Structures are given as structure tokens and as C-alpha cells.
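Notes from hallway chat w/ T.B., transcribed later so I don't forget. T.B. wanted the structure written out for a chain they're using in a teaching module, and asked if we could keep both sequence and C-alpha cells in one place. Agreed to drop them here.
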Amino acid sequence: MAARLALYVNEEETVEAAGGTLSIRGLCKSYALEDRQVSVLKDIQLDIKPGHFVCIVGPSGCGKSTLLRLIVGLDSDYAGEILLDGARITAPSLDRGIVFQDHRLFPWMRLDENIALALLNHDYPKAEKERRVAEYIRLVNLTGFEKARPHQLSGGMAQRAAIARALVNEPRILLLDEPLGALDALTRVYLQKELQRIWMERRVTMIMVTHDVEEAVYLGDEIIVMDAHPGRIKRSIKIPLPHPRDRASSPLQDIREEILNELTATSPEPDHLEEAVRI
């Protein structure tokens, strides 16, 4: 089983995956600030293959979260193109799921009800919705907690429930905006392993923003290193190592050090006008 699930990044490999192909061409985004335009993203060019796990790292204020919001369709005011399987993204859709740092579960609903809420706009029969909810509760190892409310769950369990809610629609792309950032160190390591397992099992395309470089190289097939003022892609680093990975391996640590050197080569402090704009 482990051999079948081992994944390698190379140009010749054809990967069967549930995810879609994402293409970004000449993406630019700016905000009006008093009497000037502040450029947040400039000339983003990016291609993400189906089923790949891509991590985005960069200093605060480089537009990482803005990029995710544009991909998910929460903001259509931009220049350039964002294409999913060749079709321009113009609005939110069930083919793109998103998980935030805060789990955003409704406190008055049980865990299964929170996950079922994501199926509200589907016309599946009731039995099919219940089957899907049960399937994704099993996927994130929360069987037995179906009737628990968010306050009865640990932080890690609540975040796993949020991942199940985002995946129950079986999106082509799952976007993750610092999903593990609020967790304690041990829970974070555990959730990294769980996220890797879920990705290996379902092969949905995942795009994850993180400030944790070790997390990025442990999970990602490709690391996008961004720079700020304006936000732009500084470098793309592919990681030709199989999954699951040993986070203590020398090749992984070498890549980690390379990325850290890249990120610390320039000052991370944002310009005061850039800081005034939420990006």
C-alpha cells in the first residue's frame, strides 16, 4: 500500500487526481489607499498540475492570502487571468473549497450538521448526503464525535472538521490559508501528518499558505516563494522527494535552509502604507 501511494514529482509522470489544473496569467491586484493605488500582487504567473500539493511562503504583506481569495473567487476585481481547467474564475464555486486558520464551525450545530451544511446547495437525496458526511468524518478520523458541538472538540479536532466540511463537496482544488497556524506545536505536527494522509488518499489539488517553512517542505510538491512590495513570485522550488516524508531527512533540511536563506535575504518589514491595507 505504501509503495502504491508513494508520489514523486517529475515532469514525465502522469498523475490521476481529482483536482483541476490551475493557470494564472499576468495576475495583478491593487487597492485604493487615500489618493494612490497600492499594488498588492504584480504579474503573477503560475501553473499548478492536478493533484499536486503547492505551498506558498513569503513575508507578511506579500499578498499570499489575497492570492487565495482571488483563486477561490471572493474578489473579482483584478487584472490578468485565473483559469481552472481553462475556464476563468469569476465567483465562488463548489469546485473550490477553502479552510481558514479559524475553523469557523457554527457553535450551535453538531459536527455532522456543520459538515452537512456544505451540501445545502446540492440536490442529493437525504441518504446520499448522510453517506457523504459519514465518509468525510471517517476520512478525518472523527468517527464517534458526530454529535459533538464545537466547544466539545479540541482545536485540532475542530480544524479536522473544517477540512471535512471543505472536502465533502469533492472540490477540484482545496485552498488552505494558514490552517494550522493557531494550533500548539504537537497538535500542528499531528495535523500535518493527517493533512498529508488525506491528500495522498484523495489527491485533490491543494494550495496552502503558511509561514512555517518546515511545514511547507514537509507537505509540498512545490514551494512558491513570494516577495513583497508589490507581491510577486520570487522563486519556485520543486521537491523531488516521495510521500510520506521524513521531516528530519537531510535533503528536506537542505531545502528548508535554502528557502529560509531566500526569505531572510531581504527585510520582511512592510512599508507603512502597505501595512495599512489588509492583504
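Follow-up for T.B.: The chain is about 30% helix and 25% strand. Might be a good example for the class.
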